[in-house]
Amino acid sequence: MTFSELLKGILERVEGSIGIAIMGLDGLAIEQAQVPSKMELGEHVALIATSHATLLRNTMRMSSDTGVGLLNELTLVSDDFRLVVRLIGREYFIILTLGPGGNIGRARFELRKAHLLLEKEFV
After folding, report:
1. I need a surface site. Which of 15, 30, 39, 65 has the fewest CB within 10 A?
2. Looking at the whole model, is its pTM more than 0.85?
3. CATH assignment of 3-118, given 3.30.450.30, 3.40.50.11810, 2.60.40.10, 3.20.20.140?
């Protein structure tokens, strides 16, 4: 299964999905996909992910520094979007952008499954 097929499958299974990306913590996209009917919003996924890469790096450092342990997942909820982020190794992450009615529980489940498939590729 290619990265593209994996991402498109997640978009199909998670209600309210807009877009998804596999990113490096440097902010560069490895692969991304958008829901075709939400293309104008989906185009923002890489920009959103790139902007949140710094937040993710800082959160990882804070988590480690305070003795909480390694960060695995982060969920951000705003008025217009829900972002579910799952780390893959120490340098990469997968981010799923949902609309206000998006199913966060299913998103977390699908990203956990994706993590298990991708971790051997990104270690």
Report:
1. 65
2. yes
3. 3.30.450.30
